């Protein structure tokens, strides 16, 4: 079957940067180590080579409008913390969307793009695995999309344990496909 695939990059913004890279990080995701950062850019480069559109969905919050009342204030609209981390390869033709909730598929402009491009296959990476990555994948599934693939070693979590718990839950319950970045890049039969 013909597949229209897009890559979704979740929340790779300064607010979640490892503190070694950005001192003003609000919720540092230290699990975004050198290896994971390399994997992320490898997948983005692979997508570019294969003419897969890359989309970035990034937190941007008004004060007191965070995902829930327990969240540490982060990524305020217009702040430097809402900018994509400097090490991330942002292709020129990529699209950047904002979100105010864990579930990135609530952005209507993003949904319009999926319809306009007849997208039916998704590759998702970014942070945090157990929050925005998982909730966005779940949101897409609720909208009827079945072909959803999460790149395990290109995701990271604010709580490293939650990363592995989430991946194990997805595998155990067969919710989404899980791949490693190398598998994705080496597999010429992906399409
Ligand atoms: Zn947020």
Topology:
Blueprint: E1 5-10, H1 34-49, E2 53-59, E3 95-99, H2 108-116, E4 121-127, H3 129-142, E5 147-156, H4 160-172, E6 177-179, H5 181-186
Parallel strand pairs: 1-2, 1-4, 2-3, 4-5, 5-6
Task: Count helical runs.
Answer: 5
What is the CATH class designation?
Alpha Beta
- Count the domains: 1
Unreliable runs, pLDDT <50, ≥5 residues? none
Q: Helix- and strand-based class? A: alpha/beta
Name of the CATH architecture: 3-Layer(aba) Sandwich
Helix content: 25-40%
Series of H and E elements: EHEEHEHEHEH
Instruction: Write down how many β-strands occur, each being a DSSP E stretch of 2 or more residues.
Output: 6
**Which compounds are bound in this model?**
zinc ion
The gross shape turns out to be globular
Average pLDDT for all residues: 94
Strand order of the largest sheet: 3-2-1-4-5-6
Question: Biggest β-sheet, characterized?
Answer: 6 strands, parallel
Instruction: Give the strand content.
Output: 15-25%
Distance N to C terminus: 9 Å
């Amino acid at each position: 079957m013909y597949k229209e695939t897009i890559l979704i990059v979740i929340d790779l913004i300064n607010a979640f940067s490892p503190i070694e890279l950005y001192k003003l990080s609000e919720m540092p995701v230290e699990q975004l180590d050198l290896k994971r950062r390399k994997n992320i850019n490898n997948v983005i480069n692979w997508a570019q080579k294969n003419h897969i559109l890359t989309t970035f969905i990034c937190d941007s919050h008004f004060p007191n409008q965070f995902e829930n009342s327990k969240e540490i204030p982060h990524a305020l609209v217009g702040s430097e913390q809402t900018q994509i981390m400097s090490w991330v390869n942002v292709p020129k033709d990529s699209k950047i969307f904002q979100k105010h909730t864990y579930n990135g598929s609530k952005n209507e402009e993003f949904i319009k793009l999926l319809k306009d491009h007849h997208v039916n296959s998704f590759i998702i990476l970014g942070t945090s695995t157990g929050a925005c990555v998982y909730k966005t994948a779940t949101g897409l599934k609720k909208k009827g999309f079945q072909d959803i693939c999460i790149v395990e070693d290109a995701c990271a979590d604010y709580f490293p344990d939650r990363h592995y718990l989430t991946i194990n839950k997805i595998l155990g319950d067969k919710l989404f496909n899980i791949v490693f970045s190398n598998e994705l890049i080496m597999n010429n039969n992906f399409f």
